[in-house]
Amino acid sequence: MRVLVAMSGGVDSSVAAARMVDAGHDVVGVHMALSSAPGTLRTGSRGCCSKEDAGDARRVADILDIPFYVWDFADRFKDDVIDDFVEAYARGETPNPCVRCNERIKFSALAARALALGFDAVATGHYARLTDGRLRRAVDADKDQSYVLGVLTAEQLAHAIFPIGDTPKPQIRAEAAERGLAVAKKPDSHDICFIPSGDTQAFLGARIGVRRGAVVDDSGAVLAEHEGVHGFTIGQRKGLGIAGPGADGRPRYVTAIDAETGTVRVGAAEDLEVSELFGDKPIFTSGTPLQGPVECQVQVRAHGGITNAVAELRDGRLVVTLTPPLRGVAPGQTMVLYRPDAEGDEVIASATIARA
């Protein structure tokens, strides 16, 4: 089988490539250039797509004796991931750029080019498993990335391979060291890859500008002024610009954001609880829509935000009832539904949260 491996220059994709070679496939490595002005070096665990990363990927490809190329997806990444991220925050939403990157870049733009060139599949270093075309959680629960892959369609999954999803991360590093790969000790990337500084508010502020508004309490009383709703997310407690806790002495959290009026509402922790989610643009990873109410688990964040639920399709929208409720769920987040079973939790659907 002809397999294209997306090689980021990290330990996970490097071992994924090595395993594909060991399996006897015809393997080609590709590093995706996602930045129009890549930095010379990374800053520890921050950033990606640097010249260092491309160089690390090339050195691994040399050791594995496989062809290696750099493909430029910078314009597509800017349009489909970065601009989408900025526009969502300007609307008062909280998007996950990793979800969009997998949906629109790695398993759309990259996979489409790979298939057009005659490859049978695209392999990545994601921690997830595929059994008979069904997406499941990884063996390593702490590293599981099935959530950010939950937006993939059955057709996309049919041409995907996740070679390391059956192995805990410490063993992956040990395997890389045994193979003589210098990336064995390379730090994992954290935070948002295209914001290497880690200062999301500054990044957004430079692109959205000042859009003044008010921070108000449940009575509508103005507590503070702000320079843009992009500086807030549902559930946020710190950096609200208000003087201390509420009249009852309890902390206050962002409970609602109205981008049109620039209003940020704050309230008590219990005001964050939601028992029902409404999701647009549902995707069913098996290719078959839900039939009637389905008992499942729902996850609303890449790390955490999991609870039992009952989901059903109503007029093209995914409606999910949560038991018990979750706190701090924001429009723009992705909800991913799982069906627990003996083989490992299976992803059955996903949708973008429109309201809670």
- Put simply, the count of helices is 8
Tell me the helix content: 25-40%
Largest sheet: 6 strands, antiparallel, barrel
How far apart the termini lie comes to: 45 Å
- Radius of gyration based on Cα positions: 21 Å
How would you describe this protein?
This protein is an alpha/beta fold. The chain contains eight helices and 17 strands. It has helices at residues 11-22, 51-64, 74-90, 97-116, 146-149, 154-157, 169-178, 200-208, and strands spanning 2-6, 26-33, 68-72, 121-123, 128-131, 134-137, 160-161, 213-216, 222-226, 253-258, 263-267, 273-283, 294-299, 306-314, 317-327, 334-339, 346-355. Strand 8 and strand 9 form a beta hairpin. The longest helix is centred in the first third of the chain and has 20 residues, at 97-116. It is found in: Cytoplasm. Belongs to the MnmA/TRMU family. Pfam families: tRNA_Me_trans, tRNA_Me_trans_C, tRNA_Me_trans_M.
